[in-house]
Amino acid sequence: MVSTLKPQLGANPERARSHNKQLVLRAIRHVGAVGRAEIARASGLSTQAVSNIISDLLGEGLLIEQGVRSAGRGLPVQQYAIKPDGGYAFGVEVRPTAVFTALVDLVGTPVLTRRIPLHSAAKSTILETVKAQLHCALTEAKISKGALMGAGIVMPGPFGDTGLTGTASELPGWNIGDPAEIFANTLHLPVFVENDANAAAMAERMNGVARGLDDFAYLYFGQGLGLGLVQNAQILQGAFGNAGEIGHIQVFVDGHAVELESATSRLSVQACLAREGLEVTNMEDLISLYSSANRHLLLWLDKAAQALSSALSIIENLFDPQTVILGGAMPDVILDHIIARTALPERSVSNRPDRAHPRLMRGTSGRMTATLGAAALVLHQAFTPTIAEAR
Amino acid sequence: MVSTLKPQLGANPERARSHNKQLVLRAIRHVGAVGRAEIARASGLSTQAVSNIISDLLGEGLLIEQGVRSAGRGLPVQQYAIKPDGGYAFGVEVRPTAVFTALVDLVGTPVLTRRIPLHSAAKSTILETVKAQLHCALTEAKISKGALMGAGIVMPGPFGDTGLTGTASELPGWNIGDPAEIFANTLHLPVFVENDANAAAMAERMNGVARGLDDFAYLYFGQGLGLGLVQNAQILQGAFGNAGEIGHIQVFVDGHAVELESATSRLSVQACLAREGLEVTNMEDLISLYSSANRHLLLWLDKAAQALSSALSIIENLFDPQTVILGGAMPDVILDHIIARTALPERSVSNRPDRAHPRLMRGTSGRMTATLGAAALVLHQAFTPTIAEAR
DNA sequence: GCGTTAACTCAACTTTCTTGAGTGTTCAAG
DNA sequence: CTTGAACACTCAAGAAAGTTGAGTTAACGC
Question: Could you tell me if B187 and B94 lie in one domain?
C-alpha cells in the first residue's frame, strides 16, 4: 500500500519560536495593548519567554512600546502594541472588467486603493496588471518591497471544473493550475487566494463588526451571493476550496422554490428592476430608488428578505455561528432594510436566549470590501500560529 | 478595555515533543507500517528526531516493530505499526431508554460492547450506570485503568437552550453545566462529548469508508437525522457545539416544503408505516418489509430520496466535501436503496469530473455506529497533534 | 565484485524554553 | 509612616528537544 503522507509540520525550536511570535502578535492585536505577564498567562509560556519574544519583535519593528499602565498593586505594566508601519499587505480583487487593489498597513488601515479597468480578461493581462500595480503602489506609498508581507487575491469562484462552471462571473483560463502558485511566481511574494465572501469575512474579522469573533458566517453580496465561513478562527475552505457556494441552493419565496441567488443578489435586483423598465447600473441609482420608496424595489426587497430567512435557517443550523453578517457591494440602507425585514427562524440552534451578538448584523459595505479582505488574508496569516497548520 | 485573551498554547520543548509524538503516531496509523525516514520527510523533522520519538513510543508500548521491507536500494526500512493493545478507549452512547458502551483498542477494534436498559433517564442514574459499566468493562477485558486513554460520550443534541429545545430525543437535566466536565469528574478520565452524527463520522474516519479522508460529511440516521462534519481532519462543532443540526431545515418533496427530518428518519418511516397500520419496532421489521417489496415502504423511500437530494445539494455547495456518507441506525439494504434513488444535484460544486470518491457512499450501519464513534473520538485525539489547538 | 544508494546511529552543537533568585514599584494594613 | 505583600520584570544557570555531519550497515545494479 503506497499511501502518500500528507505533509504536516513537526515542531522544532525554530518553528516553535515562529509559532510563539505569531501567538504573541495575535494576543497584542486582540486587545490593543498588553503587558508581558498577561500574554504569558494566556499562552502558557513563561514571562521570560514572552519577554524575549517581544524584544525580538521590537527589533523587527513589528511592535512599539505603548506607555505604562498601573494596574493595582505591583510594578506598572509596560504595554506593547502593533506598530502600524511594521509591515504591509497588498490586496487584489480580480473581476472580469477591472482589477481593484489596496495596500494596507499592519493594523489594517488602507494606505492606498485603486481601480484599474481591464481591456481584456485574459490571464496574461491580469497577471501583468497586478504586477504593475503592485510596484506602482509600493513606489507611490514609498514602501520597500521587504516590508510587504504578502498578497491576497480575490477571484470569483468556484475553483476548478465543477457543476457550477459556466456561471456569469467567471474568468477564463484559470481552471488549470493553482492560481495561488501562478500569482506567487509572478509577484515573488507569499500569496493567498480566496473567493470574495471568504475575504470579506476576514476583513470584517480584522477591523469590522466580527472583530474578535472566531465562528461566524458572512453573506456577501457580489455579482451573486457568496457565503464566507469562519470556524475556529479559520476560513472554512472545503476539500477543493469551494465551500460556501450558497447562491445555488433552493429556498422559498412566496411558497415557491427558487435559487437563492436569483432572489438575493445584485444581478437579481438589476434584472427585477429592468423588467419594470428601470435601469440600475450603480449603487447610487439604488439608493435614490430606495429613498423615493420605489414600489418595485420594495417588492424585491421583501422577496430577498424571504429568501434570506430560508438561507439563515440553513446557515444557523448547519454551522451554529456566533452571528451571521450581511455585507458586500450593496448600499447600507438596502442591507439595513433587508436585515430589518428578514424573519429570524424560530426552529434554529441559534435561537438561544443567552446570545451575545444579534443573529443578523450588517458588516462593512461598499465596493472595496472584498479587496480589503484580500489584504486581510495576509494579515490573518501573520497573526496566526503556524505549527500544525494542516494546509 | 478588559478583553479576555483566549487561552492558546505556546510551544515549549515539552509540548513540542508531545505534538511530534502525536504526529508520528498519526503518520504510522495513516499508512499502517512505515519507516523512520519516510515519517521524517513527511513531518519536516530530522530522521534523528523521529528515531528518538519512535524509541520513546516503543518504550511506552504504543508501537511495535513490523518487519523490515527492502524498498529498492539502500538499507531496508525497519517498519513500525500501532500496537493494538497499547491503549484503549471507552465509548458511551446515552439514549433516553438505554446506554450503549464499547471498549475499543488503539487501532479501533471493539473488545467488548454492551447495551444496558435504563429504568430512568435521570442524570444521576445515567452517570452511575456509565461509571459502573466502565469498571465492569475494564474488569471483564482484564485491562488496567492506566491503559484507558479516555472516554467518548455521545448524547443527543442540541446542547444548551436553543430554538430546537423540546425535540423528542432530548434528555432532561443536561442543559445546565458542561456535560464533558460532569462526566470527566465522575469517570476521572479525559472525556469528549459529541452528538451521534459527529461521533459516527469519526468512527467512519478511523476504520470505515472515510479512512484517510479529511473533509467529508456524514448523514446519520438516528432518531432523527444528524449531520457530522469533518473539515480539515477536525470535527466542525460550531460556536456552541450545535453545528450539523440538519434535521430541521426545509427541503422539497413532491414540490412541497417539508422539514428534512419529517421525510428522512427512523421516526419518519415508523410514523409513515403506522398510518398504514404497519407497526415497525426494529430493523428486522424494516428488512422484511423491504424484502417483500412493501408498497408503502417503497413510497416512503422515494420521498426520503427526494428529500435527501435537496439536502445533498445544500451540503455539497456549503461544505465542498470529498464525499457524503450515509449511515447510522438503518439496515444496509435501506441505505443502499436510498442512495441508489437519490438524484445527485447537477448544480453543485461537487459535480466535478475528476472525483476520487463517489458523491454519496454508504457507511457503517447498525445500532452500534455512534457508540463506536464515541470511542473513536478518544482515538482521534490521541492521533492529533495538539499545539495550536484552539479549543 | 564493487560502487552507489539509502536508512539509520552516534556524538557534538544549537535553539529555545524554564526555573529560581533578585530588583523595583505600588498598594494596604498596622 | 513604616512595613510587608503583590506583582511585573530581569538575569543567569540549567534542561529539553531538535539539528548537523560523520560513520555504519545493507541491498541493488552494472
Answer: yes
Cβ A5–B42 below 8 Å, yes or no?
A: yes
**What pLDDT, on the 0 to 100 scale, is given for residue A361?**
96
Give chain A positions within 8 Å (CB) of B314: 249, 314, 318
Residue whose Cα is closest to the C1' of D7: A74
A4 assigned to some structural domain: no
Nucleotides in chain C with any atom closer than 7 Å to protein CB: 4-11, 14-20, 23-28
First to last CA, chain B: 24
Splitting chain B (391 residues) into consecutive groups of 10 residues, what average pLDDT does each group show?
60 94 95 92 95 97 90 88 97 94 96 94 94 97 96 88 69 84 96 96 94 95 93 94 94 89 91 92 91 95 95 97 95 95 94 94 87 97 79 40
DSSP output for A289-302? HHHTT-HHHHHHHH
Residues of chain B with C-beta less than 8 angstroms from the C-beta of A17: 11
- Give how far Cα B333 sits from Cα of A80, A328, B196, B301, B362, Å: 64, 47, 21, 11, 10
Q: Are A60 and A82 in contact (CB under 8 A)?
A: no
Residue A59's alpha-carbon distances to A54, A67, A107, A147, in angstroms, are: 8, 18, 18, 14
Residues A283 and A221 in one domain: yes
Output residues with Cβ under 7 Å from nucleic strand C. A 13-14, 16-17, 20, 44-49, 52-53, 70, 72-76; B 10-13, 35-38, 47-48, 51, 71-78
**Same-domain check for residues B126 and B239:** no
Residues B51 and B193 in one domain: no
Side by side, which strands form the sheet with B110-117? B110-117, B98-105, B88-94, B148-154, B191-194
Number of residues that make up chain B = 391
Nucleotide in closest CA–C1' contact with A68 = D8
pLDDT given at position B281 = 87
What CATH number should be reported for the domain holding residue A280?
Answer: 3.30.420.40
Domain membership of residue B245 (yes or no) is yes
Instruction: State how far the Cα of A242 lies from the Cα of A248, in Å rounded to an integer.
Output: 13
**Same domain? A191 vs A74:** no
* Angle between helix B295-319 and helix A295-319 axes, rounded to 10 deg: 100
Please indicate, yes or no, if residue B4 is contained in any of the structural domains: no
Would B214 be classed as within a structural domain? yes
Residues B369/B9, Cβ–Cβ less than 8 Å? no
Chains A & B: contacts with CB separation below 8 Å: 273
Per-residue confidence (pLDDT) for residue A256, from 0 to 100: 87
- pLDDT value of position A137: 97
Residue B263 shares a structural domain with residue B334: yes
Tell me what pLDDT residue A9 has.
Answer: 84
Quote the number of domains for chain A: 3
CATH of the domain at A17: 1.10.10.10
> Greatest CA span in chain B, whole angstroms?
72
**Residues linked to residue A226 through DSSP beta bridges, in sequence order:** A220
The number of helix segments (H) and strand segments (E) in chain B equals: 12, 14
Through-space separation of residue A226 CA and nucleotide C2 C1' in angstroms = 66
Cα torsion angle, B284, B290, B296, B297, sign:
positive
Which grid coordinates belong to A269?
435586483
Look up the domain containing A42 and give its range. 13-82
Query: Which residue on chain B is closest to A348 by alpha carbon?
Result: B163
Q: Does one domain contain both B176 and B137?
A: yes
Which parts of chain A have pLDDT scores under 50? 1-3, 390-391
Of B26, B243, B321, the CB nearest to A238: B321
Provide the strand spans (E) within chain B.
63-69, 77-82, 88-94, 98-105, 110-117, 148-154, 191-194, 216-221, 225-231, 234-235, 250-253, 256-259, 323-328, 360-365
Q: Which residues 6+ apart lie within 8 Å of A82 measured at CB?
A: A25, A28, A29, A62, A63, A64, A106, A107
Residue among B231, B255, B348 minimizing CB distance to A163? B348
Please tell me whether residues B159 and B120 are part of one structural domain.
yes
